[in-house]
Model the fold of this input.
Amino acid sequence: MTAFYHLCFVVQGLERAQRDLSGTLGVTWSAIREGTLGEWDYRIVFSTEGPPFFELITGPEGSPWDASAGSRFDHIGYWSGNIGEDKDRLAERGAPVEFDSCPYGRSFTYHRIDSIGARVELVDVSAQPGFLATWQPAGAPMATLDLDAT
Done:
């Protein structure tokens, strides 16, 4: 199995979640960033340690990062060498696409796996240089998911 590169928690409060993970596990954090996808504003932060990284994200009600029912583990993130093919292959294997950012000009998809109550995120590897520049400037390139090996 190819290594995942992050674990994501959708949270009601980024700062509180950062404090709790820092206090209990010693996690250190990059600066919080704000962004917009479609009609949704969101706030996001990654740990400085990784991979694997911790990701914390929060968004408004109705968004893919809606935490109105409470904070939760949300997804495991993998780099994809071909997002179009990999998202179809995951869907064929029983992990349907729950959210596709491609129509919004982004390059990630969320796939639901009901038996674990969470999602798998695929992120196109073309976004990796930007990820590293933003979240871990000295970081080494990370491997992509190899669905042929699974």
